[in-house]
Write a structure and sequence with these properties.
The structure is a single chain. The chain is of the alpha/beta class and about 700 residues long. The protein contains 26 helices and 23 strands. It has four domains: about 170 residues, no CATH class; about 190 residues, Rossmann fold (3-Layer(aba) Sandwich), CATH 3.40.50.11350; about 220 residues, Spore Coat Polysaccharide Biosynthesis Protein SpsA, Chain A (Alpha-Beta Complex); about 100 residues, no CATH class. The radius of gyration is 28 Å and the shape is globular.
Length: about 700
């Protein structure tokens, strides 16, 4: 990981004059003494924070280069100031053309703000919104003349890496367009919609010359922003970047661009594309037969906008004012497709909480420095499933919200009767996608054939709702406009926050982890899956044919959806580290120490509890229970489950125990409640069990399974 991060830093340095990061010291200056006779601090006023109180010091910084380097520089430095509880002095400068063209022995030279290449920051961004956001973190902020920070280095990437990723992301989101820029955006947006609609009407007439004039009108809800780097300088940077590591082979598109875009828009109703790039629109995009337009094509008075932004005149639209317009146009569109190696695209992806696509797939280099890229989570649910699934899903959602509050959570939801559960999901920020697939009855025929053929008494095959519920996932590509998502099944819950960088090398197609075996390193468990959504979208028709053509023969690897995925996608599956799907019967200390997601696979909490209290447990579970009893983390994981279930009180514990252990819920409730509220993290399960047994007037000797 360290080698990969170093190679990424070298590449970003080549794009932005990033220098080898020194130890990041907070840049502090005394507030200017009004009796000194000057308007700003002298060179001697700059020092590393020492004994001075926060009221007597301020955090100064500078910005450099193009649009996104400047924005990320603001975000990282302001986040550092907030972490240091220092008032922040924001440099009043927006560089209008930060093109880096001068090479030194250390690489490209930074472009620093000057009176000739800059305009006031408030001309580009709405300063009151930015200041209010900073004040929400309890810090005062002031926009100061850039001369105050003229001697500072522009180590934007080092400062970004040292900052809190969540705070930096919030600052980026607060950098909204100024009033003048927003006025221009409104005009451009109206022109774009008219242009796209006109292209659609012309295309319709060319296909059907005798047809009546179409009155179709596009809306912004149909818009797709496509950011594409294809210039000669980009090719040079990519060649250098991709030579540095085998993991860096995603800088350029290695497939035809029209196909890459098609797999990311084919699920959208009537899309139109805003092309934002460093090169002319590729002719191949015309093959998609959707309107493709650029901001430059719009009938828009550049002169009027530029005159409102600065006192001095511009002969033409400066590069980074154009980039600013494209950036804000894109940020106001629901769907984004970009190149994750580009900091411009990476900034758009972070604004959307990673609800975006990147046509080059794999990783986001900036994510190794800005630790706030969280893969969206997705669940599936049908009201026809067994009752146990609902409380388990609630525990999982609560755990994700606890550890990753800003994560985007989605659920493909089937059914319209359970208003209480739907309301609970919406209140917890889950995006519900109404799922009424036309293949449901066909799947039921497949299930019946498999159930009749197999005599193993599979609980999954014997429950139509549960069987359908597991297959709902195949329709995820119809609903999510994302590059990756993390699918969690019932019984999987988060125990630690993680970002894209923690996932390591993202799979080109999909990633699964170990199943029952702990050290096999085999992709067998579909209950926690890291999915490349465009890949699944591209292969969905053939996958559906495969699934529904198996009514007579069944799946080889396993019954149900796990067998379908393993049989069809076997050679396309990468291994997902066990830390993202650790099982309660695993024993490896390092994996537990680094775990992010626990998956109760093959053994649910109530089954373990039922065994302890001597209740009847399915014969098929006895082997897993035996393994679990030998794991030193058996109690550790159950306590984590209990604490997640009790995040909003004990009602969910009661719901889970009463649903799963009908007639025996009391002891289950007492045990999980005891675990949830215990201040000790290292207490063995035997102690919890004895306390509950004695409190209920029972004798521990009557329960031999507690050990």
């Amino acid at each position: 990981m360290a080698v990969q991060k170093a190679s990424i830093a070298i590449f970003l340095w080549s794009l932005s004059a990033y220098r080898t990061p020194e130890v990041v010291a907070v840049q502090v200056v005394r507030e200017h003494d009004s009796q000194s006779g000057g308007s700003g601090p002298s060179r001697g006023d700059f020092h590393v924070r020492g004994s001075r109180s926060p009221q007597s010091v301020g955090y100064y910084y500078t910005v450099c280069n193009g649009l996104t380097n400047q924005m990320l520089g603001h975000a990282g430095n302001i986040a550092l100031a907030i972490a240091q509880r220092l008032p922040v002095m924001i440099p009043d400068a927006f560089i209008t053309d930060g093109t880096q063209s001068v090479y030194t022995s250390k690489g490209l030279m930074d472009v620093m703000p000057t009176p000739n290449n800059s305009i006031p920051l408030g001309s580009a961004f709405h300063i009151p919104t930015l200041l209010r956001k900073i004040e929400e973190f309890g810090i005062n902020a002031t926009v100061v003349p850039h001369a105050h920070s003229r001697i500072l280095k522009c180590s934007w990437l080092a400062h970004l890496s040292a900052s809190d990723g969540y705070v930096a992301k919030e600052i980026l989101k607060a950098m909204v367009p100024s009033t003048a820029v927003q006025r221009a955006l409104d005009i451009i947006r109206t022109e774009m919609l008219a242009n796209a609609s006109a292209q659609r009407r012309l295309a319709s007439l060319s296909e059907e010359p005798d047809a009546a004039q179409s009155s179709f009108q596009y809306a912004m809800s149909n818009a797709v922003c496509f950011h594409h780097r294809d210039g000669e300088d980009w090719h040079k940077h990519c060649d250098k970047y991709e030579r540095q590591s085998p993991n860096n082979k995603n800088c350029r598109n290695h497939e035809p661009i029209e196909g890459l875009v098609q797999t990311r828009i084919s699920h959208l109703p009537s899309p139109w594309i805003l092309y934002a790039g460093d090169h002319e629109v590729p002719k191949e995009l015309k093959a998609l037969k959707v309107p493709v337009i650029t901001r430059e094509e719009m009938r828009f008075n550049d002169t009027e906008l530029l005159a409102s932004l600065a006192e001095h005149t511009f002969k033409s639209m400066p590069r980074d004012i154009g980039a600013l317009l494209d950036y804000h146009l894109c940020s106001q569109m629901q769907v984004f497709i970009g190149n994750s190696v580009s900091t411009w695209s990476a900034s758009q992806i972070i604004l959307r909480d990673t609800v975006a696509s990147w046509y080059n797939s794999l990783g986001i280099p900036l994510g190794h420095f800005l630790k706030s890229y969280i893969v969206p989570f997705v669940y599936t649910y049908t009201e026809e499933s067994s009752p146990l699934g609902k409380p388990l899903l609630k525990v999982s959602v609560l755990s994700v919200r606890q550890h990753m509050p800003t994560a985007s959570i989605h659920m493909l939801y089937h059914g319209r009767s359970d208003a209480d559960f739907r309301d609970w999901l919406i209140q917890h920020g889950v995006v519900l996608h109404e799922h009424q697939p036309d293949w449901k009855e066909q799947l039921e025929g497949t299930r019946r054939a498999a159930a009749a053929r197999l005599s193993n008494g599979s609980r999954l095959l014997n429950h139509p709702g549960d069987y359908f519920g597991t297959f709902q996932r195949i329709d995820i590509p119809h609903f999510l406009s994302v590059e990756y998502c993390m699918l969690l099944g019932p019984g999987a819950f988060a125990v630690r926050p993680f970002t894209v960088a923690d996932l390591g090398r993202l799979p080109a197609r999909l990633g699964l982890s170990d199943d029952l075996g702990e050290k096999g390193g085999k992709h067998r468990d579909a209950g926690v899956s890291l999915l490349n959504v465009p890949f699944l979208r591209k292969t969905l028709p053939k996958f559906q044919d495969f699934v529904f053509g198996k009514a007579d023969k069944g799946f080889v690897s396993a019954p149900g959806v796990q067998g379908a995925f393993l049989d069809f996608y076997d050679k396309s599956i990468d291994y997902l580290s066990a830390e993202f799907s650790i099982k309660p019967y695993y024993s490896d200390a390092k994996r537990w120490r680094n775990s992010y997601i626990v998956h109760y696979r093959g053994l649910k909490p109530h089954e373990q509890i039922g065994h302890w209290f001597g209740w009847t447990v399915e014969a098929s579970k006895r082997g897993v229970i035996e393994r679990s009893s030998k794991s030193p983390y058996q109690c550790h994981v159950l306590v984590k489950f209990a604490k997640a279930a009790a995040l909003e009180g004990d009602d969910l514990i009661k719901e889970y125990c009463k649903t799963s252990l009908t007639g025996h819920g009391g002891l289950c409730i007492d045990l999980l409640t005891e675990m949830a509220h215990s201040p000790r993290a290292d207490q063995p399960c035997k102690e919890y069990l004895k306390a509950v047994i004695l409190r209920n007037g029972l004798k521990p000797s009557a329960f031999p399974n507690i050990g």
